[in-house]
Design a protein that fits this description.
Blueprint: H1 3-27, H2 32-55, H3 61-88, H4 94-105, H5 109-146, H6 154-162, H7 165-178, H8 185-195, H9 198-211, H10 215-218, H11 221-244, H12 249-259, H13 266-273, H14 278-300
Helix pairs in contact: 1-5, 1-9, 1-14, 2-5, 2-7, 2-8, 2-9, 3-4, 3-5, 3-12, 4-14, 5-6, 5-9, 5-12, 11-12, 11-14, 13-14
Length: 303
């Protein structure tokens, strides 16, 4: 089965999970006030377990070098995205500009991207994706947050970053790579099984959020343009750039998959926290999320 077929099957699965979440929200099975608890379960338990499981494998020097390479690719993607954001959104109002620039810079690579990478590229893909996301998460809580708040909050942002489980667990995983032993089989099985919950859980939570949204009122010209930039323009730039440079196939495919994800959920959260146009931010997240269910398999045709 080629990458396109795996991606198509994965997105079909993700669509089923999303629709399950929509139904849960519409019928009241998953209430709005309960969603925050499940989000913490996802971010603090299942996603870190999935990341940690990807490090519990035999690694060689080539994989370690490739991990360093994908971190450079990740940093280059954010830099190019920053240039793209400055070009596209230079004439926007202050409140919308922060939202649009952040959504252009950062995708929902953790919640939505990691489960897709796990399904399509397996444990090796998650291993590389974990390193890809390391500089991204650092930049989200520094450069990204600076779009919404004053620079005097730098210390607070770094403390938050240091406490983020999905960041901490990468360093734990790196330590595991160099230890002369592996985790006991019972513990590694438990970590894997808990991590396997990430895909269905993350998509159902996204579906629940969509179920609470009024999709008819979500469409906005700027949100549609942002979606085109987020899901098509940037991934195509990265695909042709890194493939033409001769980058190892699995590295650029993982990188392009993660950059082709919808706008980061933090877009709306940060906008609401710091007094920007959070209703518009929610529209950007909703429109790009719905569209990505169909755009990602189409993009995979170029893999």
């Amino acid at each position: 089965m080629n990458v396109f077929e795996r991606m198509l099957n994965t997105q079909a699965l993700m669509f089923i999970y999303v629709m399950t979440g929509v139904i849960m929200a519409k019928t009241g099975i998953l209430k709005h006030e309960a969603r925050s608890s499940f989000i913490h379960l996802l971010l603090d338990i299942t996603l870190p377990c999935m990341i940690l499981n990807s490090f519990n494998i035999e690694t060689n020097i080539d994989q370690i070098i490739a991990a360093g390479e994908i971190m450079l690719i990740s940093s280059a993607c954010v830099l190019i995205s920053w240039i793209t954001a400055k070009i596209f959104w230079r004439n926007q109002s202050h409140d919308r500009k922060a939202v649009l620039e952040f959504a252009t810079l950062f995708s929902n690579a953790g919640n939505a991207g990691m489960p897709i990478v796990a399904s399509v590229f397996g444990t090796e893909g998650v291993f590389y994706a974990s390193f890809y996301l390391l500089p991204v998460r650092i930049l989200i809580w520094t450069v990204g947050l600076a779009l919404f708040v004053d620079s005097k909050n730098t210390r607070e942002r770094m403390i938050i970053l240091a406490k983020t489980p999905s960041v901490v667990v990468v360093f734990v995983g790196i330590a595991l790579m160099f230890l002369p032993f592996k985790l006991p089989s019972v513990l590694s099985t438990a970590i894997k099984n808990i991590g396997d919950m990430t895909g269905p859980l993350s998509m159902m939570l996204i579906g629940a959020a969509l179920g609470e949204s009024n999709l008819r009122s979500a469409f906005d010209t700027d949100a549609l343009i942002l979606t085109g930039v987020r899901l098509a323009v940037q991934p195509l730039i990265f695909l042709f750039l890194f493939r033409s440079m001769g980058v190892q196939a699995i590295l650029w495919q993982v990188a392009v998959t993660l950059t082709a994800m919808p706008a980061a959920a933090n877009t709306e959260i940060f906008a609401e926290m710091y007094g920007k146009d959070y209703l518009f931010a929610a529209k950007c997240v909703v429109v790009s999320t719905v569209t990505s269910l169909f755009s990602v398999p189409i993009l995979a045709l170029l893999f």
